[in-house]
Automatic annotation (TrEMBL), chain B:
This is Phosphate-specific transport system accessory protein PhoU. It is found in: Cytoplasm. The lineage of its organism: Bacteria, Bacillati, Bacillota, Bacilli, Bacillales. Residues 21-105, 121-205 form the PhoU domain. Belongs to the PhoU family. It comes from the Bacteria. InterPro entries: PhoU (IPR028366), PhoU-like_sf (IPR038078), PhoU_dom (IPR026022). It comes from Planococcus wigleyi. Plays a role in the regulation of phosphate uptake.
C-alpha cells in the first residue's frame, strides 16, 4: 500500500490532559495511520501510557482527569458526548503489560467478548475461537487444551491468548502497553513477529520501553518527553538520524 | 556524566586507534616514496615489514567496533561513528598497501638510473600525503568545511596523474628499452592517485558522520 493511499485511523489535535493539577499531556498533535505499527517511546513518566489509555478513553477511569483538545477516531471525536465508550472499545482492543487472562478456560477467554456481544451459537463461537487463536499464532500450541485454565500455560502463551482475546471482537485498532516487558526473549520475538503479521489487518499502537523493539517492529515512532511529543517520524529516521538532540540522547541511552 | 560512560570510553579508544593507524599509513606512504627517490632498498624493506602492524591495527579496530555493536546496540550518531570508523580504517589500511606496492617497485628498480618523470610523481605524492594528513585533522575536529576543501584537491592529483602518464608514454616511444621502469612508475603514480581518492572517501565519510546523509565529493 502506498503512503498516500493510507488513511489516518487516529488524529490527535492539541490534546492536553491533567491528573488533578499535574499536566500529563501537553498539546499533543499526532496522526496515526492505518495498517501501520506506531511505536511510542520515552522515559518513565513521559505520558506515553497515559496517551494510549486516552485513545480508548480508559484514562477516564482515573478520578480527577481532565482533557482538552480532540482525538478523532476514523474522523469522529471520541470525546463527543454522544460517542459511546462501549462502541469505541469494540473497535479498539487493548493488550496490557502483564498477561491478564480471565481465570477461565482458554476457550472461554476468547469467547468472552463475542458472547457479551450476543453471540450464542456454539458453531460460530468455535469458529471465532479458532480464527482468533490462529491470528495470534497460538492455535497449534493450545488447540488440544482449549478447556484447560488459561493460567496453566506459559506467560508468553498467556500474552498471545490475550492478543487472541482482543482479536475475537474483530477490532480495528489494537493498543499494546508494553506487551512483552514480562516475557522471555523467545516469547518476545514471537509476539513481535505476530505484530508484524497483524498489521496487515489492524492498526497497532505499541508503547514500549524496549527501543530495539520499537526499531524492529514499528513503521513510525513517536518520542514523548515530559508530556510532549518531541519527535514523530518514520522509525528508520528516528533510529538513524533523528532531528532533535533529545531524541538522539534518549535512543542512544544517554538519559532516561 | 553520561549513563553510557563505558560505551563512550570504548568509542574514544577506537577513534584514537584509528588516528594511530592513519598516521602509520600516511607515514608509510611518505617513506615509500622517499625510499624510491633515494633508491634506498633497506628503507623499502622496512615499509613492507611495518605494514604488518598497520594490518594488525585495522583488525584491532574492527574487533573493538564489532564487539561494541554487539554489546551496546548503538543507534544514530553512535552507530554512524562506529561504521565510519571501520570504513576509514579500511581506507587507511589500503593506503598502507599502496606504500607496500611502491616499496616493492623500489626494490625491483634497484640501482637503475631513475627516469626524470619521478619528479612529477613526487609532486603527486606531496599532494596526496598532504590531503591524507589534513583529512585526519578534519576527522578529529569533525570539520566538514575542511573535508570539502581536501576533497577538492583531488582534481589536482587527477590532473597530475594524467600528465605523468602522458609523459611516461612519450618516454616509452623515445626510449623503448626503459619500458620496464616506465611501467613501474606508471603503477606508482596510479597508487598515488588512488591514495588521494581514499582521502576523498574519508572526507565523504566525515560528511556522512556529521550530516547522516551520503555525499559524493568526487565529481
Amino acid at each position: 500500500m502506498t503512503e498516500s493511499a493510507k488513511k489516518a485511523v487516529y488524529e490527535t489535535k492539541q490534546l492536553n490532559l491533567w491528573y488533578g493539577s499535574n499536566h500529563a499531556l501537553k498539546n499533543i498533535d499526532l496522526e496515526i495511520m492505518e495498517n501501520e505499527v506506531t511505536a511510542i517511546i520515552g522515559p518513565s513518566g513521559c505520558g506515553k501510557s497515559t496517551y494510549i489509555k486516552t485513545l480508548n478513553r480508559m484514562v477516564e477511569l482515573v478520578p480527577s482527569v481532565k482533557t482538552s483538545g480532540e482525538i478523532l477516531y476514523r474522523g469522529r471525536n471520541i470525546f463527543n458526548h454522544d460517542y459511546g465508550v462501549e462502541e469505541l472499545r469494540t473497535r479498539v482492543g487493548m493488550v496490557f503489560q502483564k498477561p491478564n487472562p480471565f481465570p477461565k478456560s482458554i476457550y472461554d477467554n476468547i469467547a468472552y467478548g463475542p458472547r457479551i456481544h450476543g453471540i450464542k451459537n456454539k458453531k460460530i463461537l468455535d469458529e471465532i475461537v479458532e480464527k482468533s487463536l490462529r491470528g495470534a499464532a497460538i492455535w497449534d500450541e493450545v488447540k488440544d487444551r482449549l478447556n484447560e485454565n488459561a493460567y496453566s500455560i506459559s506467560g508468553g502463551q498467556q500474552q498471545r491468548i490475550c492478543i487472541a482475546r482482543a482479536l475475537a471482537i474483530e477490532p480495528d485498532v489494537i493498543l499494546m502497553d508494553e506487551p512483552t516487558s514480562a516475557l522471555d526473549p523467545i516469547s518476545t520475538l514471537k509476539v513481535e513477529e505476530l505484530v508484524q503479521e497483524l498489521k496487515k489487518d489492524y492498526s497497532i499502537i505499541i508503547v514500549t520501553h524496549n527501543m530495539q523493539q520499537a526499531a524492529r517492529i514499528s513503521d513510525k515512532t513517536a518520542f514523548f518527553l515530559n508530556g510532549e511529543v518531541v519527535e514523530y517520524d518514520h522509525t528508520d529516521t528516528i533510529f538513524s538520524n533523528p532531528s532533535d538532540k533529545r531524541t538522539e540522547d534518549y535512543i542512544s541511552g544517554r538519559f532516561g | 556524566m553520561s549513563v553510557r560512560e563505558k560505551f563512550d570510553v570504548e568509542l574514544k579508544t577506537a577513534q584514537e586507534e584509528l588516528i594511530v593507524l592513519s598516521t602509520m599509513a600516511v607515514n608509510a606512504l611518505s617513506k615509500s616514496m622517499e625510499a624510491l627517490v633515494t633508491q634506498d632498498v633497506d628503507a623499502a624493506l622496512e615499509v613492507i615489514e611495518d605494514d604488518k602492524d598497520i594490518n594488525q591495527m585495522e583488525e584491532f579496530i574492527n574487533d573493538r567496533v564489532i564487539l561494541l555493536i554487539a554489546k551496546q546496540s548503538p543507534v544514530a550518531t553512535d552507530l554512524r561513528r562506529l561504521i565510519v570508523t571501520i570504513k576509514v580504517a579500511s581506507d587507511m589500511e589500503r593506503v598502507g598497501d599502496y606504500a607496500v606496492n611502491i616499496a616493492k617497485e623500489t626494490i625491483r628498480i634497484g640501482k637503475q638510473e631513475l627516469l626524470p618523470q619521478i619528479g612529477h610523481i613526487q609532486q603527486m605524492q606531496k599532494l596526496a600525503v598532504a590531503m591524507l594528513r589534513q583529512v585526519i585533522d578534519a576527522f578529529v575536529e569533525e570539520d566538514i568545511v575542511k573535508a570539502k576543501e581536501i576533497a577538492e584537491l583531488d582534481d589536482q592529483v587527477d590532473e597530475l596523474y594524467g600528465d605523468v602518464i602522458r609523459r611516461l608514454m612519450r618516454e616509452g616511444g623515445e626510449n623503448p628499452e626503459k619500458l620496464s621502469q616506465i611501467t613501474q612508475l606508471a603503477f606508482i603514480s596510479r597508487y598515488m592517485e588512488r591514495s588521494a581518492d581514499h582521502a576523498t572517501n574519508i572526507a565523504e565519510q566525515l560528511f556522512y558522520l556529521v550530516r547522516g546523509q551520503h555525499y559524493d565529493l568526487n565529481k
